[in-house]
Known about the structure:
274 residues, alpha/beta, globular, 8 strands, TIM Barrel, 41% helix
Amino acid sequence: MALLDFSNNKIYIMGILNVTPDSFSDGGKFNSIDKALFQVEKMIKDGADIIDVGGESTKPFAEPITLQEELDRVVPIIEKINKEFNTIISIDTYKSLVADESLKNGAKIINDISGFTFDSQMEIIAKKHNATCIIMHIKGTPKNMQIDPHYDNLILEIFNFLNNKVISLRNNGINDIIIDVGFGFGKNLNDNYKLLKNLSYFTKIGCPILAGISRKSMIGKLINIPPAERVAGTVSLNTIAILNGARLIRVHDVKENHQAVKTIEKYLEIDIVL
């Protein structure tokens, strides 16, 4: 049975908890237990259905960190969240050992920016824990993904990557899968908007779609404002993503996006009469 129920036009909000010193938008803000728990409480109150915990920055040109560093950052936080809150926890990692320890301590979802390609053991861990899997498309690695990304056919390349990965996972007995086209991960500005406009095409894969647009440069490059001021742009683009088929949104600003989601859910339940 799937962890999340997408019937009745339900849209899920995933609140971002970066316990990192260097994430592009909120690095250093929540890298202590007390600060992190305060933020989790706020996000749940504001309408988050899922808390996505990340211990390594994957912004463009980010340097990788060691396995132990990532474990030390995320596992104590996940353990505390699991004990103190009744919420669904996701671990944002591409390392199977981080996923394994996180799932042991209460996480239910693996959110892997590499689409299970950076670590060959990730499928084994996902199956072992019966985890929900979010597979994202990335071209390259965070360190080099934004160095002149190029596609012969953007939509088909990303569609084929995700579709083939879903088929592979299903053949391995993993069926609770969510897909993410990877806005900003090896895509230029026009690529990101082309993906957004054609997002409905990816519904053909038959998995729920997550949109990870929050505060990204596809907003900032157009209006030249820092990440923390990109809330209105984020809400606008998430609205478009939902109307084009997304059923989860991953966000920093839960309260504002929750308001949008509730109105969109109502809009989606109304039938066209003419």
